[in-house]
Design a protein that fits this description.
With 631 residues, this protein is mainly beta. Helices cover 6% and strands 42% of the residues. Strand 26 and strand 27 form a beta hairpin.
Length: 631
């Protein structure tokens, strides 16, 4: 009777989730015998929580597929040596991997820490961890020829003769198609989850993660939802492995074997951070057949050139972006060719990008994913003023006064006093020059009185050039406790203050703690983008209001240095690729125009377009043609 009730509830939950906006993606091949799909449950008033789900389907009948788990450590006081899942995948050359058993010690240790695995663990026929008791006794076991079995309760432990690989978890959530997650100890506790399942015919292994503890992204699942998602992805039996901060799923990059996260783990509150754990579980598989070869990546600071070859003429195109969702696509090559080159534009310096080469041959698409990192751009930096710069200051309540404006008259303010300005007796605070008054004393000694809730500062500087595109300002600050910074009357930064649009007044207190221990070292931030339109050649005004963390604070520190930076143009290399009567001219760099001429000395004219994007496809003209770039 109990199992019958579970079946009915499972059907009801599945129906509700479908109506609430569940999205289950289609299976996409990752490797030979390994496919990937994702799922989402979106909150719309019906769904109990938002979920991001990743699943792998592994064909155990594929002769090139093999499963593997963390091997036993030798000459170590622990059963294994701790690794995060990405390091595990890269160390053993696997194609996909997830976290597996619970372990000890948990949960903040460096890689290589000796660990003990909880529950049964077998790697390549060697028992890594024997089953210790009835806790964490649900196991998935594989023979050497990959016959898989899930055991709900492996206590007393069954024999392991003939078992080649095994990992264990808390308990089974799905047995013979029945959702058992309604009566488990965590039936009402949403958390990140890692689970494995087996299809009814035993052919497919399902590896699954559900992200959690990340509001706005994924809230985590209860056990009945975990079982329901296993069913959606084709499982007939399934169990929970370690979850929470351990939940991780990675795949190997096809270009360099490096680990790429498929889910978004969260260790100690850090999204994308992986926990070092005692046991991982992965799969060996072969790469998919591909027509792509000789991939060459040439990253610049804001552009990157990627070239590759195909054995037959194909139309080349590249998807790219900072995540595996890509988001941007290059223009397609105009004609089919065997030698391909695409330049990616509008990139950010020193940033990792994922990209996918697309080669279309007679309507059939072949893909090759990879990644690159752009180089750090060069810049010209001009100091505007140093930490000893002089500032006008006041402690008057200026609520409702436009004291940040460039034309504000600060003639009645005190100063200018050279930085660092202070009321502080901590010897670790450097560069102290100008004492600031409290409400009860003026000798600049910390603890001698109560400070005003807000101190206001203003200074002027000259910029001897018109700001360039991509320019930035770098502020280097000594500040206790927090403040708001303005450039020519426009707010540019809040430091430990409530974020906009919160209104800041004379009595507003700071939030958080100083990053440099009460102004004992410099805090840097950079201002760039749209706010830089407030900077201009000639005289400019910086205004800062410094706030206290407490209404009875007895100290204040403020000092600021400022520098101006703008990108420095570099000279790109001009390349030409010829195939038959078709040519491609390409270069790494932005802000250039391609020009052509019949003679080296000109006259020069812009190539048809004109061509400003660094990829020019053209028919090879008769005779001789010369090309150059103009900045």
């Amino acid at each position: 009777m109990k199992r019958r009730i579970c079946i009915v509830l499972s059907v009801l939950i599945t129906t509700v989730l479908a109506e609430a906006g569940n999205i289950v993606g289609s299976w996409e091949p990752l490797f030979k015998g390994v496919e990937h799909a994702s799922g989402q449950a979106v909150i719309d008033g019906t769904t109990p929580r938002q979920l991001q789900v990743q699943a792998l389907r592994v064909d155990l009948l594929d002769p090139d597929v093999q499963v593997f788990s963390t091997p036993r450590a030798t000459n170590s006081p622990g059963e294994t040596l701790g690794q995060n899942t990405s390091l595990f995948l890269q160390t053993y050359g696997l194609q996909v991997a997830i976290n597996a058993n619970f372990y000890d010690p948990c949960c903040s240790v460096p890689p290589g820490t000796p660990m003990n695995v909880i529950g049964l663990a077998i790697s390549r026929g060697v028992v890594v961890s024997a089953q210790e008791g009835p806790a964490d006794s649900s196991v998935i076991m594989f023979t050497s020829n990959k016959v898989a079995t899930i055991i709900d309760n492996n206590w007393p432990p069954q024999g392991t003769n003939g078992i080649y690989t095994a990992v264990a978890g808390h308990y089974a959530v799905l047995i013979n198609g029945v959702n058992l997650g309604f009566g488990t100890p965590e039936a009402n506790s949403p958390n990140p989850r890692t689970a494995v399942g087996i299809s009814q015919n035993g052919r497919y292994l399902i590896m699954m993660t559900i992200d959690g503890r990340q509001p706005g992204w994924s809230d985590g699942a209860v056990d009945s939802e975990t079982a329901d998602w296993l069913i959606r992805f084709g499982s007939y039996n399934g169990l929970n492995l370690d979850g929470g901060g351990s939940t991780t799923m990675v795949k190997a990059s096809e270009c360099d074997g490096a680990a790429i996260q498929l889910n978004r783990p969260i260790d100690r509150g850090c999204p994308g951070c992986e926990r070092v754990i005692g046991n991982n579980f992965g799969v060996y598989a072969k790469l998919l057949p591909n027509v792509t070869s000789n991939v060459v990546i040439s990253p610049g600071d804001t552009t990157a050139t990627v070239s590759w070859q195909t054995p037959m003429p194909a139309i080349g195109q590249v998807d790219y972006g900072t995540t595996l969702s890509y988001g941007s696509t290059s223009p397609a090559e105009p004609t089919a060719r065997k030698n391909h080159v695409v330049t990616l534009n509008g990139l950010s310096p020193a940033t990792q990008y994922y990209f996918r080469l697309n080669s279309t041959v007679s309507g059939t698409l072949y893909t090759h994913p990879c990644r690159l990192t752009t180089i750090a751009g060069t810049a010209t930096t001009i100091p505007l003023f140093g930490i000893s710069n002089g500032w006008k200051f006041t402690t008057n309540n200026l609520d409702g006064v436009n004291w940040q404006a460039t034309n504000y008259n600060d003639g009645f303010w005190a100063g200018p006093g050279p930085g660092v300005l202070y009321c502080e007796n901590n010897p670790s605070v450097p560069y102290k020059s100008t004492p600031l008054p409290s409400t009860t004393n003026t000798n600049g000694i910390d603890g001698a009185g109560t400070m005003a809730p807000t101190y206001y500062f203003r200074t002027r500087f000259n910029l001897a050039r018109t700001p360039a595109a991509g320019a930035s300002l770098t502020f280097s600050n000594y500040i206790d406790d927090g403040g708001v910074f303005y450039l020519n009357g426009a707010e540019v930064r809040r430091l430990r203050m409530s974020p906009a649009p919160a209104v800041i007044t004379y009595t507003t207190l700071t939030t958080g703690s100083p990053a440099c221990g009460e102004a004992t070292c410099a805090e840097l931030f950079v201002v760039s983008g749209a706010v830089m339109t407030n900077l201009h050649a000639g005289e400019n005004v910086i205004a800062v209001e410094v706030h206290q963390s407490s209404s009875v604070s007895s100290d204040i520190v403020f000092g600021c240095g400022l520098s101006y930076s703008e990108p420095t143009a570099t000279s790109p290399r001009l390349n030409i690729l010829r195939e038959g009567n078709q040519g491609t001219i390409y270069w790494n760099g932005s802000g250039f125009t391609l020009q052509q001429a019949d003679f080296p000395n000109g006259p020069w004219s812009n190539a048809p377009g004109p061509i400003t994007n660094p990829a020019y496809y053209f028919a090879i003209p008769p005779g001789v043609k010369f090309y150059r770039l103009r900045n």
